[in-house]
Design goal:
The complex is a heterodimer.
Chain A (H helix, E strand, L loop, with lengths): L2 E7 L2 H4 L6 E6 L10 E7 L3 E7 L2 E2 L4 E9 L4 E2 L4 E8 L2 E8 L7 E6 L5 E10 L4 E12 L2 H7 L9 E2 L2 H6 L3 E4 L2 E4 L2 E9 L5 E5 L4 E5 L9 E2 L4 E6 L8 H27 L5 H22 L2 E2 L2 E5 L4 E6 L6 E2 L4 E6 L3 E9 L9 E7 L7 E2 L6 E5 L9 E9 L9 E8 L2 E8 L4 E3 L2 E9 L2 E13 L2 E6 L6 E5 L1 H9 L11
Parallel strand pairs in A: 5-12
Antiparallel strand pairs in A: 1-2, 2-3, 3-4, 4-6, 6-7, 6-10, 8-9, 8-11, 11-12, 13-35, 14-37, 15-32, 16-26, 16-31, 17-25, 18-20, 18-24, 19-23, 20-22, 21-22, 23-25, 26-30, 27-28, 27-31, 29-30, 32-36, 33-34, 34-35, 35-36
Chain B lengths: L1 H10 L1 H21 L2 E2 L8 E7 L5 H16 L5 E9 L2 E8 L5 H16 L10 E2 L8 E9 L4 H17 L4 E8 L4 E6 L1 H6 L4 H11 L4 E7 L2 E6 L7 H5 L2 E5 L2 E4 H4 E6 L5 E5 L2 E2 L1 E7 L5 H18 L4 E9 H31 L2 H8 L1 H15 L4 E2 H34 L8 H27 L7 H26 L1 H9 L3 H7 L5 H19 L1 H21 L1 E2 L9 E7 L6 H16 L8 E5 L13 E7 L7 H13 L5 E5 L1 H11 L5 E6 L3 H15 L5 E6 L4 E9 L1 H6 L4 H13 L1 E8 L2 E9 L7 H6 L1 E3 L5 E3 L4 E9 L1 E5 L2 E10 L4 H15 L7 E6 H31 L2 H8 L1 H15 L3 E2 L1 H30 L4 H25 L2 H5 L9 H32 L4 H8 L2
Parallel strand pairs in B: 1-18, 8-28, 19-35
Antiparallel strand pairs in B: 2-4, 2-5, 3-4, 3-32, 6-16, 6-17, 7-16, 8-13, 9-10, 11-12, 14-15, 14-21, 20-22, 20-23, 21-22, 24-33, 24-34, 25-33, 26-31, 27-28, 29-30, 32-33
Helix pairs in contact in B: 1-15, 2-13, 3-4, 11-12, 11-14, 11-33, 12-14, 12-17, 13-14, 13-16, 14-15, 14-16, 14-18, 14-33, 15-16, 15-29, 15-32, 19-33, 20-31, 20-35, 29-30, 29-32, 30-32, 30-35, 31-32, 31-35, 32-33, 32-35, 32-36, 33-35
The chains are: A mainly beta, B alpha+beta.
Amino acid sequence: MRYSCLFLLLPAMIIAGCRNSQSHSVQTTEDSDHQPEKLSYTVFSDSCEYFTEIAPMVKGAPVRALVHVTRLTSYMPVMKGSLVVTLMENGLVTGTVSSVKPAVAGIYPVTLTPEKAGKVSLVFTFTGEELKDSASVKDLTVFEDQEAARQATPIAEIPGAITFTKEMAWKVDFKVQCIVPSDMRNTIKVSGELLIPPAELTVVTAKSSGLLIYQKPTLVPGARIQRGASLFAISSQGLTTRNSDAAFTGVKSRYEMSKAAYDREKTLVEEQIVSRKQFAETVSRFKTDSAQYFAFLNGFTGNRIQITAPGDGFVTQLFQPNGAYVEEGAPLAELAGSDRMLLQAALPQRYQDELPLIQSASFRIPGNEAVYETETLGGKIIAKGGAVTPGSQFVPVTFEFTNKGQFIAGAFAEIYLHTTLLHNQLVVPIAALMEEQGTYYVYVQAAGESYLKKSVKPGTFEGSRVNILSGLEPGDRVVTKGAVFIKAAAQMKGVPSHDHEH
Amino acid sequence: MLNRFISFSLQNRVTVLILAALLLVAGILVVRDTDVDVFPDLTAPSVAVMTDSHNLASEEVEKLVTFPIETALNGATGVRRVRSVSMAGLSMVWVDFAWGTDVYQARQIVNEKLASVTERLPVGVSAPVLDPQSSIMGEIMLIGLTSDSLSAFDLRTLADRQVKLRLLSVSGVAQVLVMGGLPKEYQVLADPQRMNYHHVTLQELIETCQGMNRNPSGGFIQEYGQEYVIRGMSRTSDIGEIGNSLVKMNGSFPVTIGDVADVRTGHPPKIGDAFLNGKPAVIMTILKQPHVNTLKLTASIDQALRELQTTLPSGVKINPGIFRQADFISTSVNNVESVLSEGALFVTIILFLFLLNPRTTFISLIAIPLSLLVAIITLRVLGLTLNTMSLGGMAIAIGILVDDSIVDVENVLKRLRQNNRLPADQKNPPIKVIYNASLEIRSSIIQATLIIIIAFAPLFFLSGMEGRMLRPLGITFIVSLLASLLVALTVTPVLASFLLTAPRQLNKSERGDNPFVQRLNLLYEKSLPHALRLKKPVIGFSLVLLLVSLFLLSRLGSGFLPEFNEGTLTITTTTFPGISIEQSNEIANQIDLALLSIPEVENVSRRTGRAEANTHIHGGGNGSEIDVPYHLTDRTRQQFLGEVREKLSKVQGISVSIGQPLGHRIDHILSGTRAGIAIKIFGNDLNTLYATATEIKNKIGSVDGLVDLNVEQLVDVPQIQIKPRRDMLAKYGIPVNQFNEFVEVALGGEKMTDVFENQINFDLVLRYDEPWRNSIETLENTYIDTYDGQKIPLGMVADVVSASGPYIIQRENVQRRIVISANASGRDVGSTVNDVKAIIDREVKLPDNYHIEYGGQFESAKTATRLLLLATVLAVLIIFLILYREFREMKLASIVLLNLPLALIGGVFALWFNSGILSIPAIIGFITLFGIATRNGILLVSRYKHLMAEGNSVVQAVKAGSSDRLNPILMTALASGLALVPMILHADKPGNEIQSPMAVVILGGLLTSTIMNLYIIPIVFHWIHKEHPTSKNKYQDQLP
């Protein structure tokens, strides 16, 4: 049976979004000599699609129609329930028929007998266990007699319409979605590393030369430490030269001497016994000596110099083993101070156009399914590299966020860079997109069983979605699952037999 | 010399009987031991050359691999046709040799030719291999493996490593092809990001993987008086262990495989899949070696499967009933056998009715077993099997076999009676009477048999598949006929001498025929004079009938061999090439479901895509082959097929061709395509070929009776081309061969080593993990190593382009071709094709250098018909010569030949009301009919001649002679004819399809020729001799 010539696609379909849109098409039957060509009507409610083929209606003549009811969310036939089809004229009911049981799953046969000629509406009212729904096709013509019906049938073929039957669509993994503008952003998948901000890294150095003594057996890389906690001690006990003990004694006696000189001269200067210049010298010497003394005294117990943590954080590296002789100023340990962390992504150069738009990132650490968003981690982008990292051919993009202990510095990360949000985009699932030698297209439902191949220009990809820059209109019903079946139907043009009554 | 046969037999009566008994016993022994098959061995001597053209695209395979092989093989000794298919990574060349070429010799020739080609093949292409020596006709069984507990991996492994090996060990199994499930392999899925992080290059990973899994040998040491072999045990199948293998040191940190890759078990990309009743299954195709008895092999396979079933894990089910050629063989052979025995029963009844004498009936009937057993022994000696064709030959012959004996017994009995009536002193000894009586009819039975044999001879002129198919039928027919002649000359007189000579017997039998036969005689005797008076109307009426039948004959359709009813459908489907196998499965699954909803269908097994190393290509992932055994209950086959076609037509996006397992494979052999009608277009440009084919398809689509119309989907399929930018490669220090290796290993995946699990080896394949190669965009972003171990996006050094290229290139006789295939349904093939040709000639203009060839069954039918007609003309001439030699008069010989048009009338009418198709078997039926019909004429004319020689007038001779001969003519004709009735009644039963048109023609023709022969011949004889009253003396002179 040949079919699928579409003659009317109401603009209302677009205006009303996807609600109650309807379309009519002409169905030719094999024995068109005897019967007028069937017209097909498709109307959508929020939850269902009603598709029916019906011969032009003539006053007083019963006409049989098969109504295909499809649940839009699943694109499956509505199996149970009853369908009432009402003919309305100017808001008045002129005839009602109902079909309690579908003939085949999803196909409800009804026989209508219009009583008056003129324009009518066809109202579908469906009542099922989980579903109450209705939709109507407007402006159907009921003809005076058969002759008028034959003459009035307009035929205008839509070139290239592909027929894909409801029955087939129900059986395979198939879905049609109404495209409404929505927000999306571009996502670029890259790799990168988690780093500690260089400014947050502190190196603890030896205050004096001597033997290094670990103050905690738990002092290992990764160990958490509190501010002021004792990390190391430097002892000079037993050292013949550079004995810190001897040095301390010298510093202490110098301090005590200059303190005594200061105390004495403080009263004398008021009495102008000591010149102000001399007192200033004494004060200066006292300050220097006390500074030296207190520097020593701080952390110096017994014959050891204690080295404490300058702030909260954790140990990232230890440079010297326990018991080593360290020179004054030698680095002992690297401490990571705060909970700030950097995510440094390596962006391939080809995405440089996107660079200014990059706003946030999500990332995951291999071996861990969880995906983290920099924004929810209190992060922000802090640098978009202006230069390619030497030796790696990638552009660094750096985010900073708060690490609550779940991330390890130096870890490798899979990163999805997100650009700024684009508003009012026509977004389709990638599964809807078909490709042929670099050009993309989608299938759009033109009428119940008619589909059109539309060339589109895809924009940016976000996960499983892509925005369409051109080729689609809001309200288009795009095949988002099973587009390949339509391609197969188009390529293998075996004309399907279209007899729905088995 | 033949007289001596008779005299020797009568002199050594006991010896003859013992010899006959021995023959019976020997024959029965041979029957029990003879191989049974459905058809004669149709295996065309064909050799398939398969070349694994690793990673080459189809055009390159064609250019670099297929072409050199084809040119080397084309023109080799005895090569009939060279066909080829070039597809990505695989070249297949089929070399069809002339029929009758020894397969081993053919393989030898191919091997020799290949030796010169192998070294010219590109690097990386493996040496061509010959397909295991089994043709697709040898696909004798499909078995299904399903499990509700095992994973697809385990099920496939079980099939590959256990079931397949066990089946291959059954003697006679040539090959077992496994499809479905998931073949297991070990995979190292490298993550280039992690590789980058750990500074590991692909080359380092390749080296690690290649050297990782082998057990080194450490020689041996001798200690404690023993010799210890030293082995390193590095081989492992533990995924964790494999992951722990060191790749390199990064400073002081070891980097292992597990650090940069996921190690897991998985499956290679699917090229084929299998389903049983819509559910995933493993389907195994068992191919037998040539000349192996299918029934016995099937029994051993069944035994092996039963044994296997006990060792398989619980929940694994072997379904051996998906497709079994053996079932079709048994059914069809049983059917033919029952037709044969029913025919024998009919013959017995007829003989008894006419003879009304158990003894004469017995003597006549004994010819049947003796002749048939001789035929079977001959088959055995010739190395042929017992099949529906040879059994069919017997079924057709069975009514004719008794003829010679009947004629002999009749005459012997008559002479014995006459002798018995003589006064005692004039009585001859019975043996002498029998000898003379036998001698009397000797010449006419020899002539008659000779004529039938000559009439049958054209069958042996058939060549090709139809020749191979029908030859055994001819052999059994002729051999059994000759044997029956011999029996009539030896055993029959001997038995007559034992059973018919007792005076009591002779007196009793004088009481004559039964009332029915007597009435027939009376009727005939009364009606003949009327007919003689009404010469002109009778002859005129006959002429009108003849003209009508000639007209009908011209309107009969033509066909090749009637379609078999195999009880299984083989449905081939295609959707567009380039579709992924999952989607293809989903569409084809709709076909499964549609078929399962038909009540007659027993099960539905589908194989989509292709098995590894299979020459029976269903196309790529877009093609499926579905086997559907069915059991008819209430509906006819036509109704059932109607529903099948109707339901399948509802599945969109797929084109369907419905065939049967053997028919489908016979079509493969005939034309290399699957359907009955193949329109082949030859030319150079694939797109032009496809466009032309599509144009033709659209134009001929409306031809009445043309179904399953398909154009080979030679359309381009999508490709992703990764084109290196050499300047950029140079900039980053990447040599082109490293780039090539990257594409092969990282994207394609390469086998690195074997992993053994309990003696079973699995491939270990290295490849990038899927997210790094699964889309065009990710291909641009995937990483390639630079010279200093850095990784850069592939897009920086290469263009990744979506393009398209031919998926499959088919060639025949070194030319590209496309095939438009179709079947005829509800109409004969011949006229359907004529319509198609007319449309193509009228409406399609081929581009220059393109041409069309028509192939398929109808082409074979045309050549065969032409050949048969020529041979028939020759045969008729020879028959005429024999008749002339017998009667020594052109007129008499011509009168006898009058039977030919008389027989034609009935044959044509019968055919018209039956199938309306003049197929090859029907033509052979006509030829046979001519032989049998001529015999009736001989009987009459020779009797007239004899009577006139004795001095009777023309009228007396005609009347008495016709009356004399009525009984034997009716008896032989009825025996020959009714023996065929069971065959016609069971025409649609499997096994009878080919012989039944023959039976229809013979029965119809016998009916008219017998009845009309009884009136027309006397009339014509009378007519001719009335005008020449002197002829009486002429015959008197000729009296011996």
